[in-house]
Every structure is written in structure tokens, then in C-alpha cells.
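Hey everyone, long-time lurker, first post.

I ran two proteins through the pipeline my lab uses and got sequence/structure pairs for each. Pasting them in order. The first:
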Amino acid sequence: MAASLRVLIHGGGIGGLALATALARRGHTVEVAELREHLDSLGVGIIQPSNALHVMRALGVLDACLAEGFAWDVLTIADPAGNPLARIPQPRMGDVPASNGIPRPALARVLGDAAVAAGAKVRLGVTLTALDDDGTGVTATLSDGSTDRWDLVAGFDGIGSPLRTRLYGDRYAPAYTGFANWRVTVPRPPEVRGVVMATAGPEAKALLTPITDELMYLGAVFAEDEDLRPDPERAHVELAERLAAFSGPVAEALAAVTDPSAVVYSRISQVTVEEPWHVGRVVLAGDAAHASTPHLAQGAAMAVEDALVLAESLDAAPSVPEALDAWEARRRPRALWVQALSRAVLKQETGTPTTPEEDVLLETGIPGAAHVLVRPY
């Protein structure tokens, strides 16, 4: 549409900042409301697969992401001692790298700087407290008492999305998968030049992911009780106990972890909003609408694809409601396919029984994933 829009983005994470950048670069008035006091994203590192890097190029931040991270093209499968069993080239979208590992705080900084440079306003320490959508616009009140009117409100407020609760109640609360992710940042040895997946049977796998020239992160997924919280005094010991079957680079990485507070523990949950992802002029995207497990490294990639496609849909459609319909028609099949396949891979890798539908998905989806995910979204 030709008119400049006023857009409020609820959530200043990866997807929200990507949307802010995409819209502000197109001349729209954009404001991001972020509850945290800083944009320094929590966690360790993140993999940007080729399709996510393609979006970064469209946002003008590809070079910055590559400069802050560590690009790689080959996945290595190794035994418990770290001896390579297979080296698998990873697919590319166009001429961008197959993948880029990057620290989460660095990615938050890159996207935050880009959004502000494009003209978006980022407001920290605020959240939505009231919404009134009258069909022609949305009046939104923030926690600091300010009220303004917007053409569109976009919720990129994560897996625990308050905006999703406001729209749908508790019908789509996060569902725990029964598994949790343990991650910790460690020094990168020179030989780790791409993701190394070391396996010790179906219940024990560890990933080494380079994120800078100096750093990588060690990650592992295990079945855990939903109420488990690692002991803050010995979280690094608990992780080492779970990875006791490994020697070589995994054991060396564990030996470098002496601070239990460095270990990041997160339960793996899933969200599937089965109703339309937009209600009137309010839309949910990213993890707020379709959070998935990390097993295809596509969670953040789906969020930034959501953001760019939403900006493109607003360009092409004659009205906001028509743009939201077109956006969801493009995004829902791809995002839910990624979610279903990622959950099936989690089960397969952890030796958990799969359903007949998941067996079919694994048989057809794994070979096809590389081709699907490097096609335009």
C-alpha cells in the first residue's frame, strides 16, 4: 500500500527488531515496546541458517552478522571421542553462507542498531496494558501510561507472549515437550570450524557450535522433569554428569566450565496457535504464534522470515487486513511444517517413540528440508 503506516511492535527480540528494521526502511512510523531494560538478548549463541542470512541481507545487516559471528558450511558427525564419522555439506540460499554462528547479545545489538538507524523508536521497560481495536485502527496503552493510535500492532513477544494471552486466553499456553536444553559458552579450539554433533547412543548427543573466532557453545538436550531447576552451585557438574560418556573435544569443553552460572538451562516447549494468527489489526508472529524445538535451528529463522514477509505483504496489499490475510497464507504452512519436523527430529534423536505421522514426516521431510528451506519464503 502506498500510505505510510503507524506500527507498534510488542517485543524487541530478534523477530521484533527485524520487523522494525524492515518497516522503518520502507518509510513507516515504527515503535518497539520492550519490557526489558536492555536489548542484550539472554542466552549463549544462535545458529543463523542460510535462509535467515538471506533475510539479514534484505535488512542490510548481513555483513555485520558475519563480522560478529563465525560462518560455516559443513556439519560433522563424530563419535563420543570426537573422531569424525561423516562430514555433511549444508545447503545455501543463493550466495550467502550455509550457516553463521553468532552470540545472541551480538545479534541483538546488530538488529537494535539497524532498527534505530532506519528510524524506528525503541522504548525499553514498557509493555502493553490495554488495546482497543475499532476496525480502522488500534488504540494502545503502555505500562508508562502513554496512549497512541496505530494502524497495526504486531506481537513478537516470545513463547510466553502476553499479547497471545490477551487475544486467546490460555488456549495456547506453551506445551512442555519433556526435554530441556543445556548450553554453555566455551573457548573454540581451531579444529571446530563448523557444528560438530558428537553422539553416544540415542539418549546422548552434544553439539559444539562456533560463534566467533574465539568462542563456541556446547549444547545438549536431555529428557528432564518439567519442574527441574539445576542447582545454582553445581549446574556445570550436573551437565558434566549428563555428558560423562564423552571424551575428546566435548570433555575438553566441559573442563573449561568452572562457573555454574555460565550454564544456561531452558525447557523446550512448543506453541501452536491453531486459530488465525491475526485478530483484526493485531497479529502474532515468531514464537508467539508457532514456537518450535531447536532441532532444525530454525526458530529465529522463522521469526525473521515472518518479519520480512509481513513487511512485503504490507507493501503489496491495498489494506492492512488484506495484507495480514496474505501474510498468514504464506507463512502458516512453512512455519508449521518446520515445527512438526523439528519435533519429530527431537524424538528421533532422543530415542523417543514417534507417531506414524511423524515417521512419514521424517522419511520425507529430512531429505526435503534442505531444498525447502533454501527456497524463497
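...and the second, right after it:
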Amino acid sequence: MVDPERVAMVRAAMPGGEVVEDLVEVFSLLADPGRVRIITALLEGGEMCVCDLAAACASRESAVSHALRLLRANRVVTVRRTGRMAYYRLADSHVRLLLDLALTHFGHEDAQTARKGPPDPEAR
């Protein structure tokens, strides 16, 4: 049986269509291992150039540069230019918070699994 009051409250609190589309786009950016490595490198290393990011991520500079273009277009990273060099960093504390929470979540999950031991195949 549907609870119309609860449904109305939830619908009123949900983000609008444009915000949902923006969220989908940002989360889809995080669905690529190379981009996640780049974002994590920036989380740990702060501002970095393409060549340092490529070395840190064990990737080609062209692949890192392409990924950075996508991340920059979606306001995940920003760039600072000094002469011919470009230095990238996470766009703001919100991106850092999102990454920190995701890493903490998976670290917490891994720690819980380690304490419990491997899943019991008979439990299915």
C-alpha cells in the first residue's frame, strides 16, 4: 500500500531533472579507472602537471591529457598555466569530500570484511 504523504515528501526533496543529469555526468566520469587514478593522484599530490600525473598513474601523457579535458569540462579539476606548463588540481573541496567519503566507505567495508573473514559459501 502506497503512503501518499511519504511519497509526496520524498518527491519534494528530490533534486530536479537538470541536477540529476549533472550528477549522472559526474558519477559517469568516476566510472573510468584511469580518471579515478588521476583524481586520486590529485587528491594525494595536490596540484600536478600532466607528465607527473602520467608517471604517477602509470599511463600515457596523451591519455591523461584527454581525461583531464573531460574532468575540466565537468568542473572536477581546474588548471593553472605558467608559461607552457599546465598544473591541474581538484576543483574544490566538494570534489575532495566526495573522494574522501568514497575511499573511506570502501576502506571501512574492507576492514569489516577482514574482521568477519571470507563469506560463507553455504550461507546462500
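Reply from user beta_strand_b:
Welcome! Quick read of the second one: The CA atoms of residues 93 and 99 lie 10 Å apart. The two ends are 30 Å apart (CA to CA).
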